[in-house]
Specification:
7 helices, 60% helix, mainly alpha, elongated, 149 residues, 2 strands
């Protein structure tokens, strides 16, 4: 059930440009990187510049980082309609079918699709350049659109 604040003026919807989406992506990845550095600061500083030890540490924390990215994307898209990067870029994510708030399951599917796109050389992001709705692989999977806020 949507409340009054969740209503969207469908007359003025405009798809977000891929440039704004790229800016939001970079901001979000910088935020995640900053969080990972904070979480691993003691271990990173104890390495003393040993590259093999650093790679081993990053490999050991690969799954928690992936989970952090999934939770970050899913929660912010579901709860706020945008991640911090999207908020800074003045864009938001809406449901494809009703142009309203994205359900938790759709935001989770979108988040998982985004991880898959990243794992496969960001190919899923390129889909956004070749369709009318500028939908990336994760937008299609989550049944979402990204529009200007």
């Amino acid at each position: 059930m949507q409340n009054k604040n969740d209503q969207i003026d469908t007359n003025n919807l405009e798809l977000a440009s891929m440039r704004l989406r790229l800016r939001a992506f970079i901001i979000d990845d910088l935020i995640i990187t900053f969080l990972v550095i904070i979480m691993l600061w003691d271990s990173l500083s104890a390495n003393g510049g040993d590259l093999v030890a650093l790679l081993s540490l990053l490999n050991a924390y690969a799954m928690p980082v992936v989970i952090l990215k999934i939770v970050y994307q899913a929660f912010f898209v579901w709860y706020y309609g945008a991640t911090l990067g999207k908020m800074a870029s003045k864009i938001r994510v809406i449901d494809y079918d009703n142009f309203g708030r994205v359900s938790f399951m759709n935001s989770l599917f979108r988040s998982l699709g985004r991880i898959l796109s990243e794992m496969f050389f960001y190919l899923g992001f390129i889909f956004g350049y070749f369709n009318d709705g500028r939908q990336t692989f994760h937008d299609k999977l989550g049944r979402t659109l990204v529009v200007n806020a």
